[in-house]
Amino acid sequence: VDLRVGGGYRLAMHDPGSDDTHVVRGEYTEVVPPERLVYTWAWEHDSPGSAGSVVTVVFRDDGPRTTVQLTHTGFADAAAVARHEHGWQAVMDSLERRVLTPQRA
After folding, report:
1. Report field, pTM of the whole predicted structure over 0.85
2. Is 28 helix (H, G, I), strand (E, B) or coil?
3. Which of 71, 41, 46, 48 is nearest to 58 (CA)?
4. How far apart are CA 83 and CA 72, in angstroms?
């Protein structure tokens, strides 16, 4: 991760239920600490419908918490929207569990 405008990222996600590894990469187009990130999104493997899409993450101060709003736009079709919606929901659920669940020492 090179977190600056024009910098890039490459993330590999391993599916624990199989031997599959999914790799995504992109470029940061907007970085406004601590409020906003915007970046392009493209799979390295064949994942039709998501090339050229854009992710926007907005962080809002909400008293003792931070609200995270994630928007992913620019899909070619409804099937790509559904696949990514499922994936992002899993990511947000995992984040919520990790942040809101008390950590044991």
Report:
1. no
2. strand
3. 71
4. 12
Other CB atoms within 10 Å distance of the CB of residue 25: 15
Q: Kindly report each contact of residues 23-31 with a partner whose C-beta sits within 8 Å and lies 24 or more positions away, as own/partner.
A: 26/55, 28/2, 28/3, 28/4, 29/5, 29/54, 30/5, 31/3, 31/4, 31/5
Query: CB neighbours of 62 closer than 8 A, spacing ≥ 6?
Result: none
* 40/54 Cα distance (integer angstroms): 4
DSSP β-bridge partners for residue 73: 54
> What are the Cα distances from residue 87, in Å, to 63, 72, 83?
28, 11, 6
Q: How far apart are CA 59 and CA 82, in angstroms?
A: 24
Q: Over its length of 105 residues, how does the chain's per-residue pLDDT go in tens digits? A: 999 999 999 999 887 888 888 899 999 999 999 999 999 999 888 666 677 899 999 999 999 888 999 999 999 899 889 989 988 998 889 888 888 766 555
